[in-house]
Amino acid sequence: MSTKFTVKRLMLPHYFQKIGFTVFFLMLAGVLGGMVCYWCGAFGPESSSWPFFAWLSETYNTLWVRTALNIIGLLSLAFITFSREKVEDEMMDRLRLSTIGAVAAAYLILYITVSIVWSLCMTDGLMNYIAANGYEFGFYLRAEQLWLLYVIIFKLRVIIGNGRVPDERDNRSGEDANGRDIKVRTERRYGDEK
Amino acid sequence: MKNNLKVLRAIHSITQSDLAGKLGVSRQTVNAIETGRFNPSTLLALKISRVFGVGVNDIFELEDGE
Fold this sequence. Notes:
The complex is a heterodimer of chains A (194) and B (66).
Chain A: H1 7-10, H2 15-40, H3 50-60, H4 63-81, H5 90-121, H6 124-132, H7 143-164, E1 173-175, E2 181-183
Antiparallel strand pairs in A: 1-2
Helix pairs in contact in A: 2-4, 4-7, 5-7
Chain B: E1 2-3, H1 5-12, H2 16-23, H3 27-34, H4 42-52, H5 56-59, E2 60-61
Antiparallel strand pairs in B: 1-2
Helix pairs in contact in B: 2-3
């Protein structure tokens, strides 16, 4: 029995995952750091860094910069998603498939819930606030966020699965199908022959 | 599905890591099979039976109700 086509032939080497995580967290740190500094007034108009921050903010708000950052973010997620785990086997394949199913189910539940809440709770004032702040219906259900959710769920399941594996001990005993202990004599005495 | 993989490993003095290496899977997969959290594919079940030199039916057994 041979399978000429396997998923792992299409996947990137494992080190691409580290590259993806590094880029992603650097971007996240940059965005969060900028937001925190802005809120703290570190780059306020009174500070000496204001000209630099003003330039940075102006540059960030240009279309090509935001597009480039989006593409880099998506690339980092792609590197994480499409790179091999340390050991690629059928359990990883099934884990990926079940995670896609879980994300699809979560998306459906969230979409239905938000649709209902949006319809029931929407007022003119709220709608104007949302429009003024650039949010639209389902902004948090974009493909990028679903992709990120997939990565988070998949990696968590891999980590939790690895955590369930106990330390390898020299397990010389076991249980039979009825749950009774079977002690297997494994120590070799002088003169024993296999 | 029940299995006596742990017993067979004990009889043959094979660790989970060794068995995983022979099968080309992770130790997590071997552990998951032993604890019943994961059912192997036909290919993997045949590889396991080849490692231990016994039939697949001697390793895996359907539970009542399956």
